[in-house]
Write a structure and sequence with these properties.
The protein has ten helices and six strands, in the order αβαβββββαααααααα. The strands form three sheets. The protein has a two-stranded antiparallel sheet with strand order 1-4. A two-stranded antiparallel sheet has the order 2-3. The longest helix has 25 residues. It is elongated and about 70 Å long.
Length: 220
Amino acid sequence: MSEPTDIQPSRARHDKAKRHHYVPEMILRRFAGPDLHLWSFDKRHPGYGIERKPIARLFREWDLYTSVDAAGGRDRSAETRLSALESRASPVLDRIVAEARQGRLAAVSSADREALADILVAQIRRSPDAFNSITAKWDFDAFIADRVAEWEAAGRSVEDADRADLLSGRFVAQTRRNLLAQTVVEPLLRVSAGVLRRGFIVGVLTKPNRSFLGAMQDFR
């Protein structure tokens, strides 16, 4: 999916904001043509139909992994850490694909396997749809209201303006985005270890007219 077109950031925001890919370009390049374009369909704008777009414009959102604190400060370290994971995994994937095309199974070290496990776990976590499906059952409004009540029960006052801000949809939306940014790469250790125990499979299409998606359907 391409980024939303119904929200146009101001020039000042455009200068500072970062467009973060939730499917990294490192992966998209492996499915794109020589011109680094992909055929895409954006379900949010079905009227546009199927379009061919550069991968730089696909699967991204403004400041997706940026945390914003109460003072407006922005922390983009999650995006930096995701880039580091991609840099570790990319050469491993290159080697596996190159060997598979020659009909061979690449030899991978324990460090290679860890890099693959980390990028897989992070890829699942960094998807907005996956995150929203997990947090859809969370009642953020009730949680915030309970915290305000606890604060007041302890004898601390909350100004009406502050209460209204805390219970506003804007604050809840930013809280959700902060949670995504703060959990997308932390912690990976326990989850990645579970992925490593399950192992990896390398598949090769042997029929030139067979599609990747069709083969995956049969595999399932």
